[in-house]
Amino acid sequence: MGKALAFAVVLWGAAWGLQPRLAALGAARAHDSSFFFSAPPLSLLDTRLKPLAADALWIRTVQALGRLDVRQATVPQKQGLYRAALAVNEVDPSFAFPLEAMGVVLSAWMNEDRLAGKLFLRGQFLAPESWKFPFFLGFLAYFYEGDAGRAANYLGLAALKPGCPVYVSRLTAKLYAFSGRPKEGLSFLDSVMGLESLADFRPQIEERRKEIVLTAAFQELQGAIERYRTRFGRPPKNLGVLTASGLLEEIPKDPFGGQFRIDPKTGLVFTTSGATPLKPKEHFKRPGLSPLGGTKNP
């Protein structure tokens, strides 16, 4: 009883002492930048008490977040939220959810992808079994950097983690195709086809494999056409000219059963099956920004 009461007093005191700093998050004043709190005092708690202390601090952080207009948050307020999630995790490193949740808030709601990337990277290190942290890193890489290759690398890590949704595997292969590396996408799909956890989704994965093969074929043909155009100043009349001129070893096959043709006027490739290659959607790329802080590809 005595120990429980002593812990309650310590925890209440820590939360009470933290409250003014958390409340400062909601104030649009110059001293917002003073929102700092460090974990060392609470890190000295008994190991058995740290999860409860971290829970209490996280609740206070969420309450402070609830008082903010997230769309109008100032830079100091964003930095304060970042430090809050980081400090909660430092009290209890096994409590990785604040890193995930605050990373989503910062990136999706506050357009602060740099700080979000740092939280996700820490989460990936502390919770290597989680698929969510590499998934969110891939999200940042594609939608904020416009780097489909880096995104594919991260999502490829996520797809092999327990509990990862099957759509991540299909998306990974698509991103490899977008980055001009369709063969890596095919290799990735071949590697996940044998996973027992994805046995029920093999038809969908096989369909995506066909789409990647088709996209690779379009890229190969279009590349050969451009080389022909550079050499002769005009597009070829038909695809057979590409093989005859040594620019292409053979005409690839359409995995959907059609045959590839070329429009001699435009030089664009199409297939009689009507299938079209995968094309990237518009992202939120902002030139010059690196939300992941220049970290290397995984």
Q: Cα-atom Rg, whole angstroms?
A: 26 Å
How would you write the strand order of the largest sheet?
A: 1-2
- Average per-residue pLDDT, rounded, comes to 80
Distance from first to last alpha carbon? 49 Å
Estimate the global geometry from the Cα principal axes. Answer: elongated
H/E element order: HHHHHHHHHHHHEE
Instruction: Please give the largest β-sheet.
Output: 2 strands, antiparallel
Derived from helix and strand composition plus strand pairing, the structural class reads mainly alpha
Number of strands: 2
Tell me the fraction of residues in β-strands, as a range: under 5%
Q: What does it look like?
A:
The protein has 298 residues and is mainly alpha-helical. The chain has a domain at 9-127. Helices cover 58% and strands 2% of the residues. The chain contains 12 helices and 2 strands. It has helices at residues 2-23, 40-43, 50-66, 75-91, 97-109, 113-126, 132-143, 148-159, 166-178, 182-193, 202-232, 240-244, and strands at residues 260-262, 269-271. Strands 1-2 form a two-stranded antiparallel ribbon. A hairpin with a 6-residue loop joins β1 and β2 (269-271). α1 runs parallel beside α3 and α5 packs antiparallel against α6. The longest helix has 31 residues, at 202-232. The radius of gyration is 26 Å and the shape is elongated. The two termini are 49 Å apart. The model is unreliable at 1-40 and 287-298 (pLDDT under 50).
